[in-house]
Amino acid sequence: MKYIYISAMLLAPAMALAQQPHTPFLPHPEGKHSGNVVATSTAPAARAKSLDYYTEEFTSSLNGWTVVNDLGNLDWTWTDVGPGTTTSTYPVPPLGTTTGGWAIIDDDFLGQNGTETNTWLISPVIDLSLAPQYLKLEFEQYFQEFQNDTTYVGITVDGGLNWNQIAINDDVGRDGRPNPELIDLNISDWVALGPSTVQIGFRYSAIWDYGWQVDNVHITDLEANDIALLNTHYTNFDFANTGFSEIEYSIYPQEQVRPMQLKTDIKNKGYATQTDVTFGVDVTGPGGPEYTGNTVAGDLLAAELAPVANDGFTPSAAIGLYEVEFHASQNEVDDDPSDNDRSMTFQVSSDVFAHDDGTVQQYLEQGIDNVGDQFEVGNYYELFQDQDLLSVRVALHENTVVGALIYGIIYDDQNPPAQIDLTADYEVTLADLNPLGGTSFVDIPLNAPLQLSAGTVVLVMAGSYGGSEQVSFATSGNSAAQVSIINYPVPGDIFYVTKTPMVRAIFENTTGIGEVGSIADGAVVTPNPTEGSAVLSFTLGQRARVQLEVRDMSGRLVLNSDLGKRVAGQQLVDVDGRNLSAGTYTWTLSSDGQRRTGLLVRN
């Protein structure tokens, strides 16, 4: 066969790689058969109403589609149950299709280690001579990558001697695509070469990877007017160009809220030029609307993709949820407006810095080459303002052995990273463990607050000593490459992962300093460490009610005291720790919505 390849590439402005603090890490080589997790599923976008000139839903068989193996002997097959059962670290779920069966290449279950595959699933001949000039191919798929697999979709009009084809899945990663994902391609020019003898080809090229699932194939009208939003973000993070600057976080501490860059890619998916294409964003914070802006992208030719960004936006830093709504519009009436809007959310907290989504979805353990080894997982954090780091907060999956020891560790942003701080060990209890869907965290305090200055980047990690006391660190959501890390201190191997470890950084809350009614900076407990009784001193800006809480490292409330309404000025409060066991505790002082947090050590 003669292959004609078509590919598209987004070109970013060249920037000095000196902005990167270190060379990129390699992806973590998770053992293909070394654990288990649960993959998430999302529904595809609805199909626009139009005529179908060819339909194949694989309801009960491959229905006349043929398999051609250019390399290897792995065949496409029909299924209505999905891939075979394996013990892969990232097992492949069934395609989330809605009609009967579907086509599958099940490389994980049927392939062999090191065996190369290049195999086609090819349709019968389709006569499109009576179809209109502008056509698109639609299908549903599910795909995830193990190492170096690539998939293509092609059209031939001469029985397979020549193929026009385009890569559909390449460098996807083990998180995979949405399940199912609706793909559509403009095939007008290819069909025009021989409309009465069209064949569709799905090509899978890999060396023992996971596989590919395909269903609900349609050839239908290509809309004249259809723009779509792709790749929406609320920061400008791009490791190759920005290093660790402008990382996208799920939760920002109030003092670490920073200017954001709301951006997207807009694609003209129709066959007609779209004029005065506009990108709009609306941001709503806890107190109501915070930002509305529109940016004109200009005219977009057919199939043109344009990166667009607004002028920038800085959240108010009010505590709570922020919703970011992205919109695209043009002068023409859009024939398929379902892909013109997208939304994202982030949160602002008094003291939490996080990447994860807050609910346990999967977990991380050692890869197959490091079973039983000491290992650490965590995320990078960049400081926008000076602030003291107090503790490492981590979520654990229920596979973790009760009684296992874990610890928190802080590194700098070099390669290899250098240790900055290390916590004492924490012994895991049954109450610390989460099933899938759990939301519980454990706080592991630093021995003393770690003073960090603006511009500093730290790698905040939780670690396990390995051996028989297995620890499964919970993950939630997905990370961009280079942001989330797994580290093996011995032999010193470090990799990035794309499943986000639920490892958070907890900072001292110093927001609202100097505001009327707030607790002024400088709240402190003395003596600390204490043998029992201690004194908490702080200053009030004006008369206000004050509450004091003390919690142990599991988050259990051990002291809760309403200090009543107090006059403005210096305050001294006795903290009775005589009934507390030896260990480290966190204290939180609250007044008029402001909080101060610190550590208390009981000898």
Overview of the structural elements:
The chain is mostly beta strands and 603 residues long. It has 4 domains: 31-221, Jelly Rolls, CATH 2.60.120.200; 230-350, Immunoglobulins (Immunoglobulin-like, Sandwich), CATH 2.60.40; 359-507, Jelly Rolls (Sandwich), CATH 2.60.120; 524-602, Immunoglobulin-like (Sandwich). The protein is 2% helix and 47% strand. A hairpin with a 6-residue loop joins strand 38 and strand 39 (533-540). The relative contact order is 0.11.
- CATH topology-level fold name of the largest domain: Jelly Rolls
Low-pLDDT stretches are 1-20, 31-48, 512-517
On the 0-100 scale, what is the average pLDDT? Answer: 86
Query: Main sheet, how many strands, which sense, barrel?
Result: 8 strands, mixed
Beta-strand proportion: over 45%
Shape: globular
* CATH-scheme architecture of the largest domain: Sandwich
Gap from first CA to last CA: 76 Å
Count of all domains: 4
Total E-strand runs: 44
Annotation field: number of helices: 3
Helix content: under 10%
CATH class of the largest domain: Mainly Beta
Radius of gyration equals 28 Å
Helix vs. strand class: mainly beta
Indicate the topology.
Blueprint: E1 2-6, E2 26-27, E3 52-56, E4 66-71, E5 77-79, E6 102-105, H1 107-110, E7 116-122, E8 135-143, E9 150-156, E10 162-170, E11 181-186, H2 188-191, E12 199-207, E13 212-221, E14 227-233, H3 239-242, E15 251-253, E16 263-268, E17 274-285, E18 288-300, E19 305-309, E20 320-329, E21 341-349, E22 352-353, E23 362-364, E24 375-382, E25 387-394, E26 396-397, E27 405-411, E28 419-422, E29 426-427, E30 433-434, E31 442-452, E32 457-464, E33 473-478, E34 484-488, E35 493-497, E36 499-501, E37 503-507, E38 524-526, E39 533-540, E40 544-551, E41 557-566, E42 569-576, E43 583-591, E44 594-602
Parallel strand pairs: 1-10, 2-35, 15-21, 26-30
Antiparallel strand pairs: 3-13, 4-7, 5-6, 6-13, 7-12, 8-11, 8-13, 9-10, 9-12, 14-16, 16-19, 17-18, 17-20, 20-21, 22-37, 23-33, 24-32, 24-34, 25-31, 25-37, 27-28, 27-29, 27-32, 33-36, 34-35, 38-39, 39-42, 40-41, 40-43, 43-44
